[in-house]
Amino acid sequence: QVQLVESGGGLVQPGGSLRLSCAASGNIFSIYVMGWYRQAPGNERELVATITSGGTPTYADSVKGRFTISRDNAKNTIYLQMNSLKPEDTAVYYCNIDYRRWGTRGRDDYWGQGTQVTVSS
Fold first, then answer.
1. Spatial distance between the Cα atoms of 5 and 73, rounded to a whole number of angstroms
2. What is the C-alpha separation between 112 and 97, in angstroms, rounded?
């Protein structure tokens, strides 16, 4: 069993900042990739940013230069620093983990419950 605890969402004015965090715990042997995805009403879930175990980030074009993903491997935690937020960033943000469980050779995938980010004046 894996747990993902997400925090940091909320209401912010356009141009403001928020920092999301996602802490993973449970039956985890190793983590390959962790990341953030988001889903706005009526839209499909889309990638925001991911980061590998080695620290290589990937960003959606829409957030490049505004968002920064980082990772603390010792804590199995990732962070998403979101600056210069826009109303179109409003969505539920979901944490995702691509990992290997103890006693297995395969890779598993797990989603957090999501945290709401609302950008509005």
1. 15
2. 9
The answer to whether the CB of 94 falls within 8 A of the CB of 110 is no
Mean of the per-residue pLDDT values of the chain: 96
76 neighbors 31 (Cβ within 8 angstroms): yes
Q: Which of 98, 54, 59 is nearest to 80 (CA)?
A: 59
Contact between residue 17 and residue 10 where contact means Cβ atoms under 8 Å apart: no
Q: How far apart are CA 36 and CA 49, in angstroms?
A: 5
Q: What does the block give as tokens for 79?
A: 């962070």
**CA-based nearest residue to 118, from 95, 96, 94, 92:** 92
Q: Shortest CA distance to 21 belongs to which of 119, 108, 115?
A: 115
Q: How far apart are CA 93 and CA 97, in angstroms?
A: 13
93 within 8 A of 9, measured Cβ to Cβ? yes
Nearest to 82 by CA among 98, 60, 97: 60
The residue-averaged pLDDT of 86-115 equals 95
So what's the pLDDT on residue 1? Answer: 87
